[in-house]
Specification:
Blueprint (H helix, E strand, L loop, with lengths): L5 H15 L10 E2 L5 E2 L1 H17 L5 E3 L7 H4 L4 E9 L1 H5 L6 E8 L2 E9 L4 E6 L3 E5 L6 E2 L10 E6 L5 H13 L3 E6 L3 H7 L6 E3 L5 H13 L2 E5 L18 E5 L5 H11 L1
Helix pairs in contact: 1-2, 5-8, 6-7
Amino acid sequence: MNELPLQALIELVRAAGQAILPYWRQPLEVSEKSDSSPVTAADLAAHACLRDGLQALGLGIPLLSEEDAEIPLAERLGWSRWWLVDPLDGTKEFIAGSDEFTVNLALIEGGQVHFGLVGIPASGRVYYGGAGFGAWRVDPGQAAQPLAVRDTPEEAFVLVASRRHSSPAQERLLAGLGQWFADLQLTSVGSSLKFCLLAEGAADCYPRLAPTSQWDTAAAQAVLEGAGGLVLDLHGEPLRYPPRADFLNPHFLALPQAAPWRSQLLQLARSLD
């Protein structure tokens, strides 16, 4: 992490957020990409800000962005590390006028997430961290605050889930968890903020048995890992980001590393997937 200009990266993530805000809660023209996901001028403005800002840092690290993903696999296979970016995560929330959208910036090394930043344009808050580095939350004009997961629920078992994306397997998993934990509280949140709630000890688990892409998860996974959490595929292995032809993640579970119910949750998820 020492070789990365942390303050410059925080400022860049905030600048990308500022590029988004003029379009927020304004009339928008929404286009559809080949995967049927929406894209707006705000997505493209944030992408341009991050692209130009990362290039200006002069680190020589290539960029893979949701808004510029048409890079041949043969070229990406030659990368040892790269920036993985979602300039506007939670576009549907953004279009709906919600403040639950983020700017995601992750550094991938050898197919593993090394470090990540998640910015909230509506407030200027930035989460950042990585395994072995720790995790932090910083608000404009304030000192950074360290983050840590909670290994056991405080009162209710707080489960976070996507506000707009689910699947039959996901719904069965939520029902199964409801039988385990009598006092289960479901919180629906947009974008990568779900991981951040776990990282700051405000939630206990984020299961995802529905589609996501690599740029949706990498930055916030780094933050969660820095705070003592894990993001596991259903084989119990950490979620990885190898170069491949498509960018879809396997289904996963985000949880505290020391959660005593970890193995039972994996078993339940595997039985439903």
